[in-house]
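User: I'm writing a short report section on ligand binding and want a predicted complex to refer to. Could you take this sequence and adenosine-5'-diphosphate and write out the structure as tokens? A short remark afterwards would be nice.
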Amino acid sequence: MKVDIKSENGMAIAALRGEIDHHSAKSAREQLDSFIINMQPDVLSLDMSGITFMDSSGIGLIMGRHKLMRECGGRLEVRGPQESIRRVLRLAGIERIVRII
Amino acid sequence: MEILNEIRFSMPSLSANESAARAAVSAFIVQADPTVEELSDIRTAVSEAVTNAIVHGYRGTSGRIDLVLRLLPDREIYIRVRDGGCGIADVKKAMEPLFTTAPEEERSGLGFSVMESFMDRLSVRSRLGQGTTVTMRKKLAAHGS
Ligand SMILES: Nc1ncnc2c1ncn2[C@@H]1O[C@H](COP(=O)(O)OP(=O)(O)O)[C@@H](O)[C@H]1O
Ligand SMILES: [Mg+2]
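Assistant: Sure. The structure tokens for the complex follow:
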């Protein structure tokens, strides 16, 4: 999975591309967390439109960043997941916790 | 069980093999011409079972994971994932949604829920100290329906 983060005026967008599983989640988590801790954005938007596969490891990745953003006084949102990924998000009830656009 | 086709393979419990296992499943299943949704459901379920073998079964150690993929009559896909790892003390409890023994690693406890909801049948057999076998089946929709 590739992570590409752009940020402007406290609003950050992290474009994720590829497949999210337990193996790939590790380095994405490290990249996202160091960005959050160093830059303290108000909003971090995970652009998931480039994600072609996600299993429940992706739920852990999203929930973990949601918690860290909250601790830093900000908010996480998820953008553009394709239908197969929405099914996993729905099963986990993520849409009740994190805004999905 | 009448078996129309079968492949078996064995891999070490390296996390890089989570995607390798999915690729093998895709390659095997195309012959049954699944829908995009069916393929994605099966790939996700296999990814969960293989990840569990790596993350939980062989926690702190390593070992082999055996994968069996079968095409059965009436467009039914059969998948078996077996590890020789630590086993599960209480399978019923392990299968409850949100139950996880590794919350600090951002495991969500939803692996078995995903397998259950994305496949038609799920069976888990496990013995402490001996390993775990997960068997799943899914019938693909009839052609032209
Ligand atoms: N192959 C396995 N070997 C040993 N324990 C397992 C295995 N698969 C699952 N488990 C146990 O069942 C629990 C629930 O699994 P799962 O629903 O996939 O959630 P998660 O992987 O997020 O913890 C795991 O936390 C673990 O304790
Ligand atoms: Mg799991």
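A remark for your report: The helical segments of chain B are 17-29, 36-57, 91-94, 111-118. The mean pLDDT of chain B is 97.
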